[in-house]
Amino acid sequence: xxxxxxxxxxxxxxxxxxxxxxxxxxxxxxxxxxxxxxxxxxxxxxxxxxxxxxxxxxxxxxxxxxxxxxxxxxxxxxxxxxxxxxxxxxxxxxxxxxxxxxxxxxxxxxxxxxxxxxxxxxxxxxxxxxxxxxxxxxxxxxxxxxxxxxxxxxxxxxxxxxxxxxxxxxxxxxxxxxxxxxxxxxxxxxxxxxxxxxxxxxxxxxxxxxxxxxxxxxxxxxxxxxxxxxxxxxxxxxxxxxxxxxxxxxxxxxxxxxxxxxxxxxxxxxxxxxxxxxxxxxxxxxxxxxxxxxxxxxxxxxxxxxxxxxxxxxxxxxxxxxxxxxxxxxxxxxx
Length: 335
Prior knowledge:
Layout: E1 8-11, E2 20-23, E3 27-28, H1 41-54, E4 58-60, H2 69-78, E5 86-91, E6 93-95, E7 101-103, H3 107-121, E8 126-131, H4 140-152, E9 156-162, H5 166-175, E10 180-184, H6 197-204, E11 207-211, H7 243-263, H8 267-276, E12 282-284, H9 291-299, H10 307-316
Parallel strand pairs: 3-4, 4-5, 5-8, 8-9, 9-10, 10-11, 11-12
Antiparallel strand pairs: 1-2, 6-7
Helix pairs in contact: 1-2, 1-9, 3-4, 4-5, 5-6, 7-8
């Protein structure tokens, strides 16, 4: 881990009253509770503590992770260290007792979901509250009007939106200022660079929080077959990890590994350093549930890529290079 103070970045803009200082890298906590195989609560709690010790302040969770149990885990982890944390959680990706899921942006749900998250997290306010997915049956102005009320009530400090289309981002921001957009962005998921999303948030002074910056672990180079994944790992059903798509994507990772080896870094560190080099408004939130990988990710903040190295990565992993959709069902993405 770095011994100097961990670098910080600003999400949002002082000009529109949304500036929020966070660590240059955050910690995605989702995998500690679900989706990536069995969890280990003791190690997860130790990983969060190690992140805070290293200067990583931005912790990312959501009510649907678990469901619900990830917020409780994060709440336990930060109980004695609340003032060190920029706490981000999400609503709107609703999970029902029968196992079904839905998207819910109704104002009454926004209010009840926030109160429930506050209880599970054991805090009196949420620093950054995201609309997890856009509900196309509810005008975004209604959802964001309710979010503005939560800010006015002191329950939420800053607002974010996830996987939204440019026009939706504009409408939300016009209703209640948006501090951060959270969307997948990595060396093999670069569509935001050409579909107007990145240009829109930069025009509006909105920060970019990049989730899955390591391509769901793929860019680390540790995954070469679905057999490397636990039986209940959701990546087994992800199109990018299957068949011909997997073989094509492995060739891309080889390019990252080669550059990393020449630089004395890991492939994952190069992938994170590439995102950090895309602008001071970008904050990657690599997820991990183990201290070993946390230390590797944190050290990426010290990896500086030269202009030639950045150009090489752009050449071998251009926009659209990743093979296969990033979710089995893309219907709730970019709405």
